[in-house]
Amino acid sequence: xxxEAVRVLSYTLPCPLPDAPGPDAPSSSxxxxxxDRLPVSAISAPAVAAAAGQQLSPMVLARCTTGNAxxxxxxxxxxxxxxxxxxxxxxxxxxxxxxxxxxxxxxHVSHAIDPQIPLSRLPSTPPITGSLTGGNESDVGYxxxxxxxxxxxxPNSLASTPVPGxxxxxxxxxxxxxPILPPSSLHLTLLERYIPPATQAEDTAxxxxxxxxxxxxxxxxxxxxxSLLFIYPTKTGAMDFDRDYLGPVLDPLLRKLMVLxxxxxxxxxxxxxxxxxxxxxxxxxxxxxxxxxxAALTSGEGxxxxxxxxxxxxxxxxxxxxxxxxxxxxxQQEQVRVREIVKKHGNSQAAAAATAxxxxxxxxxxxxxxxxSGFWTGYGVPGDLAREILDGVRAPxxxxxxxxxxxxxxxxxxSGSGCGVGSVAPVGVGRIAGGIRRLETIKNRGVEVGIFIxxxxx
Length: 458
Fold this sequence. Notes:
By secondary structure, the protein is of the alpha/beta class.
């Protein structure tokens, strides 16, 4: 049987993340991320046992969870949302070659990462995309030798906010200045973003023929029909994200901090606001931008080399986001901006407190407590506040005070059902049941994205 290699680049903005297996991925015989755990589908076992009036032993219960408090293992039988479309791309490639039946396909996926993202945030193993190598289930998964993964370092273009201390560019960068793989070396590229960019400038630059990631990615594609799958949120999708994902998490957190630490409303609004949203384009305008972008590349306008490119497919879709993924994306994208906002606010408050302290000292001969601290009333070091905001968004937790009535009743009934497990089973089962119940209530959320396929020609 003949063989063929397909070279793919996966580029996720604002940063790549570990991902759960795709919804169509075949089940493997074990949990790939925790060898001492039962298969990921076993997460529903405690709830099933509870419905039947039974209770799992502590040993079995421990193997049904990840071992991380408040975090559940993604299961394929439930829609846990999207982190990447890479699984669907590799599965489509495999299915196409399987139907032909004359060639065996090997897929090499290069995952682009930003140098600012710590390696601990990246997958320790390649994503499970499944494999179609004769239909044997034992051949499916990470150890199947048909999908190979590697990491390539992308230029520092994923950072949405300039890092303090780095020089600013005084003129636009030259075109085609940031390829991360050799020109014309790829068959397929996936460039995807599901949350709105941090700034209007970043949104505008995406469709610029002089400084766009799109130009760089097309430059890397083969001129003999290389294709780019581009996924990008529309203005409606950005508002969906703000209303249905970020708002319900960030707004209560900021209100709590405002009450606890007597923070100014201006500080909280600065943290909450995503300035790019009002300037983003709806789907029709987004499609027009991409068509104009391709026309400019095809004609070689200005200093651009001629690179014939056409839009062969475009549609809009509604995508449900993975809960942990969007939190991590927002935190990584906005952390520099949040820290700068908090720092500036802290400096202004310290200056105001020093002025007030001077006036008070001249009148009463003593300093106030606020003037000694140098920070605003109710809080200490500004960096601690920024970290509390970012950590509050990044890590969803299930606290006893936030558990629903149904979950509390379930935990209560489990604690009184004997078996001598006491405090072990109610905590584990409560978190699992609460996570699944919350998932059911939010499964209809989603963001609107535009899906485009751009193809290079000779």
